[in-house]
Amino acid sequence: MVARMHAYQREFVDLLVRHEAVRFGEFTLKSGRRSPYFINAGQLRTGAAIGGTGRAYAAAMDRAGLPCDLVFGPAYKGVPLAVATAIAASHATRDVPFGFDRKEQKDHGEGGWFVGTPPQDGMRVVVVDDVITSGQSIREAVALLRGAADVAISGVIVAVDRQEKGPSGRRTLVELRDELQVELVPIVSIDELVEDLQQRTVDGKQVLDHQQAERIAAYLAEHGAPA
């Protein structure tokens, strides 16, 4: 039994379902594993969808109490997340700048690795990304930021924690937290998402049935790690 979800988490789950950013079935992951569910935040690609996504990220940032002088999104999926989170935060509690990186360093014009507001000494940076599986994109983003300026990484917010095991056998989120010495905040975990969708419908439809939930539980028993 997971803790009762907050309103912004449930609204985010609805958003994932309505835009088919979460799907249930059988999928081959980048790692080669066969998974009974798939998360693709790239499906959140309309104005309303990315607006709702930004509100969820901003709410998670506020709930976790993360100080923020810059919202940073790793290219490419993190780019709209950074913009949407900064916009949502400005409507709610604070006006914060955003920035993101290029895949290749620009050698003309303003040059450099960064677009938008670049990291500067003393900044407290919140990184936004889509899902935690291996954590490699988060490692690269934190290294890039720390290499560019004397910044403090306040935390990393992701859409969904898949609760996968890392190389040590511990949950990847825990490995990353200890390795990078940063707070990692998922909007929802896969456990929370599954339990929520088992208990209700979305727009009158049963999204997740008992059999699908059992397949996810079996997958996590093999490849996942407890909270």
Descriptive report:
The structure is a single chain. The strands form two sheets. The protein has a six-stranded mixed β-sheet, sandwiched between helices. A two-stranded antiparallel sheet has the order 1-2. Helix 1 runs antiparallel to helix 2 and helix 2 crosses helix 3. The protein has seven helices and eight strands. It has one domain: Rossmann fold, CATH 3.40.50.2020. The chain has 227 residues and is of the alpha/beta class.
**Total separate domains:** 1
* Largest sheet geometry: 6 strands, mixed
What helical percentage do the residues reach?
A: 25-40%
- Rounded to an integer, what's the Rg over CA atoms? 17 Å
The stretches of 5 or more residues where confidence is low (pLDDT under 50) are: none
- Tell me the structural class: alpha/beta
Beta-strand residue percentage: 25-35%
What characteristic shape results from the CA principal axes? globular
Order of helices and strands: HEEHEHEEEHEHEHH
CATH architecture: 3-Layer(aba) Sandwich
- What's the N-to-C terminus distance? 12 Å
Question: Which descriptors would you attach to this protein?
Answer:
two-stranded antiparallel sheet, 6-stranded mixed beta sheet, Rossmann fold, 227 residues, 7 helices, alpha/beta
